[in-house]
Q: What sequence folds into this?
C-alpha cells in the first residue's frame, strides 16, 4: 500500500536481495522429472484446455455508489452493501481490540523473536568490519503473555512519572517490544508518536519538539544519537530503552543511567515496576488519537498524521474480509518498519485474526543475508512464514537473482525453466489450461521448490505496497513462489486503507477495488486532462472517504485544510493528489500524479521541482527537466546545456567537434555535466536517489514558441515528456 509521504525506502528494512541470496535453480532435474513432465504436461493439458475452453465471466469487484461532497464518480467494495467499521461488536479501539483478541486466543503463540546465540566481527580485505550473528530458533510468547506484559508496561510507565496528558514516542527498529510498548500506551490512552529509526537529526528534533513528547522509547543503540542532540530536545523527561539481547543494563558505558534532563530506564525495569504496582487501565474512546505518525517527508520537514483508534480498527476489519482462511495457522514475517503505516496495519490485522508474528530484520532475512553467520539460517528458513508484506524492490531483486542463476546454468536448465514459466504464465492469464493440477505439482517440485525455499517454502499470500509493482515481477512471484501476491494502495492519511486486490484477481497493474471500510471517488482534474466522463474508463484525482480516513496533520491546520474536506453528511474526504481510473469491474488503476512528486520503486519520494531548482545552479545547465519512473529506483534528466560553459570546457580539455549537437552526444561531455550535477546536488544536500543517474544533453533551447516552456520560462512537464518520450525511455534501458 502506497502512502503519500511515508515509505519503506527511507528505512534500512529494504533488504538488498541479489543472486547470492537464492539457492540453486534447477536442483532435482533428471530423467524421472522430464519423462513424467512430458506425459502430464503435454497430453493432459491439451485435452483439458479443449474441455474447459470458453470465456471467463467478469467478476464485479466494485460497484458505483452515491456519496456526498464534491461531484465525482464513486465506487464501494462489491462484497459489502455498507462500510465496515469494526471486526466485531465492542472492538472499536486498539485497546479493546488488543484485550479481546488476547483473551480469545490466549494460549496461542503470538510474538516470536530469535534467540541470539553469538555474535562476532569479521574484517574484510579492505579493512572494513562486519557484524555476523548466529541466531537460534524463535522463542514465542502467547497472546496471554503479551497482554500481561503490555499491562505491566502501561502501569510502569505511569509509575515512572509519565504524565498521562503528554505523548510518548517510539524511536526503534521493528521488534516485539515495539508492539508491546505501543499496546501498553493504548491501555493508558497515551498517544504514541512514531519515528523512523533512520530519521535524520533535524527531522528527529522537529518531530519530538513539535509533539512535546515527554517519554521516549528507543533501541539502546539510539541513546548515543539522543545524547548528541539532548540540548535541542526540550520536553523529554523519561527515556526507556530496549535491551539489545536481554543483557544490557543501565551500567553499560553506552547508557548513562540519568542526565540532568532525563531519567533513563530499561524496558524490563519499567515492566517490573508496573508488575509490582499495577494500575487500572485508562481506556480511550474510538475517536481519540492513537498515533501521530511522522512521514518521511517529500519536501522539507516531515508531517505528523493524526490517526484515531477507529482508523486502525477499520482498516484491520476491512482487510480481514479479503484474505482467505486467515487465522491461527498463519505465521506472519515482520521486518518492515513499524513506524510505517503499512507494517503497523499488517500487525494489527494479525492481532485481530489470531496469527503468529515472527520478527526478523532486513539484514538477517535469508541464509545469505549480510548479518547471518555463514553456515547458519536466516529468519525465513527458521520461521517458514505463510504471510508477508514486501516492497517492489525486494521482489524485483528476487526476480533478477533467479533469472541470473538460470542464465548462468544455461543449457537444458534454462530451456526447461523458460518453457515451464511460459506455460504457467499462459495458465494464469487464462489462455491455456496447462500448468495446473498434476502438472503444476510436478513443476513445483522440479523447478520452483529451490526458489521458494529462499523465503522458507511456505509463503501462501504476499502483499506488496509502498510503490508500484511491475506486472513482470508480480507474475514472476505468482509462478516461482507459488503465492498469491496482491497490490494494495493506501496512505498514511488513510491509515493504509484505500484499495486492495482480491486474492482471485489474476490481473496486473491494478490495486483492486476499495476496501470495505471506505469509498473511493474520482474527481475530474481538468487542468491535467483527466475527467470522470472519459471513455471507456472514468479518470480523475483519487479522493478517499470513510472510516479509515484520518483527521489531519498535527499542528498544521493550513495543510490539513488543503487536502481534507468534510461533506454535507459529515464524511471526511482525503484528496490524494494521485490520478486513477476505474476499470469496468470496479478496480482502481493508478495512472499519474497530480503534483510534481513521484514515488520511486523503493518508496522514496522525489520532488522533481525541488531537484530541478537545485541542479540549475550548475554552470553547465541552461534548463533541466528531471524525470522519475515509479518502476525504477533512480531518476534521469533532460538537460539543455549552456553553450558558452560547455564550449569553454571543451576547449580546455581539447575535445574536437563539428557542431554543438555532436559535442552534446560525446561520452566525455555527458560525464562532465553529470559530475557537475552530482557536485551541486550534494552541496544542496540532495539524497543520492535525487541526483540523476543518467542524463541526455539536448542542444536546442526550450522556448515559449516551441511550447516546451511558459511565457515565464517555467517548464511544461507533460509536453516535454511527450516530445522526448523516446529519449527518456532510452535513459532507462
A:
Amino acid at each position: 500500500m502506497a502512502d503519500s509521504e511515508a515509505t519503506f525506502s527511507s528505512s534500512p528494512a529494504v533488504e538488498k536481495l541479489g543472486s547470492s541470496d537464492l539457492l540453486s535453480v534447477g536442483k532435482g532435474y533428471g530423467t524421472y522429472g522430464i519423462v513424467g513432465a512430458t506425459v502430464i504436461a503435454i497430453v493432459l493439458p491439451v485435452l483439458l484446455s479443449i474441455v474447459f475452453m470458453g470465456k471467463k465471466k467478469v467478476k464485479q469487484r466494485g460497484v458505483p455508489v452515491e456519496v456526498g461532497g464534491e461531484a465525482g464518480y464513486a465506487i464501494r467494495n462489491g462484497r459489502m452493501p455498507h462500510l465496515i467499521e469494526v471486526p466485531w461488536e465492542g472492538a472499536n479501539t486498539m485497546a479493546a481490540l488488543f484485550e479481546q483478541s488476547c483473551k480469545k486466543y490466549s494460549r496461542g503463540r503470538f510474538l516470536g523473536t530469535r534467540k541470539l546465540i553469538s555474535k562476532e566481527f569479521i574484517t574484510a580485505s579492505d579493512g572494513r568490519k562486519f557484524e555476523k550473528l548466529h541466531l537460534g530458533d524463535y522463542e514465542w510468547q502467547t497472546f496471554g503473555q503479551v497482554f500481561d506484559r503490555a499491562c505491566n508496561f502501561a502501569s510502569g510507565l505511569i509509575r515512572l512519572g509519565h504524565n498521562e496528558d503528554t505523548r510518548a514516542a517510539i524511536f526503534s527498529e521493528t521488534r516485539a517490544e515495539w508492539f508491546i510498548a505501543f499496546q501498553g500506551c493504548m491501555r493508558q490512552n497515551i498517544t504514541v508518536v512514531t519515528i523512523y529509526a533512520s530519521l535524520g537529526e533535524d527531522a528527529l528534533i522537529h518531530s519530538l519538539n513539535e509533539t512535546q513528547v515527554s517519554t521516549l522509547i528507543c533501541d539502546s543503540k539510539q541513546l548515543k544519537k539522543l545524547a548528541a542532540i539532548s540540548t535541542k530536545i526540550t520536553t523529554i523527561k523519561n527515556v526507556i530503552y530496549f535491551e539489545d539481547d536481554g543483557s544490557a543494563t543501565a551500567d553499560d558505558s553506552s547508557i548513562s543511567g540519568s542526565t540532568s534532563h532525563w531519567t533513563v530506564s530499561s524496558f524490563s525495569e519499567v515492566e517490573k515496576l508496573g508488575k509490582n504496582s499495577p494500575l487500572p487501565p485508562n481506556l480511550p474512546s474510538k475517536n481519540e488519537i492513537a498515533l501521530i505518525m511522522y512521514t518521511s517527508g517529500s519536501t522539507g520537514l516531515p508531517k505528523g498524521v493524526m490517526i484515531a483508534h477507529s482508523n486502525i480498527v477499520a482498516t484491520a476489519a476491512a482487510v480481514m474480509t479479503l484474505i482467505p482462511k486467515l487465522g491461527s495457522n498463519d505465521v506472519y514475517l515482520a521486518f518492515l518498519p513499524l513506524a510505517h503505516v503499512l507494517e503497523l496495519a499488517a500487525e494489527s490485522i494479525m492481532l485481530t485474526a489470531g496469527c503468529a508474528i515472527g520478527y526478523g530484520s532486513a539484514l538477517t532475512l535469508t541464509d545469505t543475508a549480510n548479518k547471518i553467520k555463514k553456515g547458519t539460517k536466516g529468519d525465513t528458513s527458521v520461521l517458514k512464514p505463510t504471510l508477508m508484506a514486501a516492497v517492489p524492490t525486494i521482489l524485483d531483486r528476487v526476480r533478477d537473482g533467479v533469472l541470473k542463476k538460470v542464465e548462468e546454468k544455461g543449457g537444458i536448465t534454462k530451456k526447461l525453466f523458460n518453457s515451464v514459466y511460459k506455460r504457467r504464465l499462459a495458465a494464469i492469464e487464462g489462455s491455456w489450461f496447462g500448468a495446473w493440477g498434476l502438472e503444476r505439482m510436478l513443476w513445483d517440485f522440479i523447478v520452483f521448490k529451490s526458489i521458494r525455499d529462499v523465503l522458507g517454502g511456505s509463503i501462501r499470500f504476499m502483499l506488496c505496497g509502498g510503490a508500484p509493482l511491475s506486472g513482470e515481477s508480480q507474475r514472476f512471484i505468482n509462478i516461482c513462489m507459488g503465492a498469491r501476491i496482491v497490490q494494495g494502495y493506501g496512505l498514511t492519511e488513510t491509515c493504509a486503507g484505500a484499495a486492495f486486490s482480491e486474492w482471485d484477481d489474476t490481473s496486473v497493474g491494478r490495486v483492486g477495488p476499495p476496501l470495505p471500510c471506505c469509498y473511493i471517488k474520482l474527481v475530474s482534474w481538468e487542468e491535467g486532462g483527466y475527467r470522470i466522463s472519459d471513455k471507456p474508463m472514468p479518470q480523475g484525482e483519487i479522493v478517499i472517504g470513510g472510516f479509515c480516513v484520518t483527521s489531519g496533520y498535527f499542528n498544521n491546520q493550513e495543510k490539513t485544510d488543503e487536502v481534507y474536506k468534510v461533506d454535507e453528511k459529515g464524511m471526511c474526504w482525503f484528496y490524494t493528489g494521485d490520478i486513477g481510473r476505474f476499470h469496468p469491474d470496479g478496480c482502481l488503476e493508478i495512472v499519474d500524479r497530480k503534483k510534481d512528486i513521484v514515488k520511486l520503486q523503493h518508496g522514496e519520494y522525489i520532488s522533481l521541482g525541488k531537484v530541478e531548482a537545485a541542479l540549475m545552479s550548475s554552470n553547465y545547465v541552461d534548463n533541466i527537466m528531471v524525470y522519475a519512473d515509479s518502476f525504477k529506483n533512480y531518476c534521469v534528466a533532460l538537460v539543455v546545456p549552456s553553450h558558452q560553459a560547455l564550449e569553454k570546457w571543451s576547449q580546455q580539455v581539447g575535445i574536437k567537434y563539428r557542431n554543438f549537437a555532436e559535442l552534446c552526444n560525446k561520452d566525455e561531455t555527458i560525464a562532465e555535466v553529470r559530475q557537475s550535477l552530482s557536485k551541486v546536488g550534494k552541496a544542496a544536500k540532495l539524497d543520492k536517489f535525487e541526483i540523476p543517474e543518467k542524463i541526455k544533453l539536448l542542444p536546442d533551447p526550450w522556448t515559449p514558441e516551441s511550447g516546451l516552456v511558459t511565457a515565464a520560462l517555467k517548464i511544461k512537464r507533460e509536453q516535454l515528456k511527450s516530445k522526448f518520450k523516446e529519449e527518456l525511455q532510452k535513459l532507462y534501458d
User: Anything to note?
Assistant: Residues 31-51 form the longest helix (21 residues). The chain has three domains: 1-45+73-84+326-603, 94-101+141-284, 604-732. The radius of gyration is 27 Å. The longest strand covers residues 109-123.
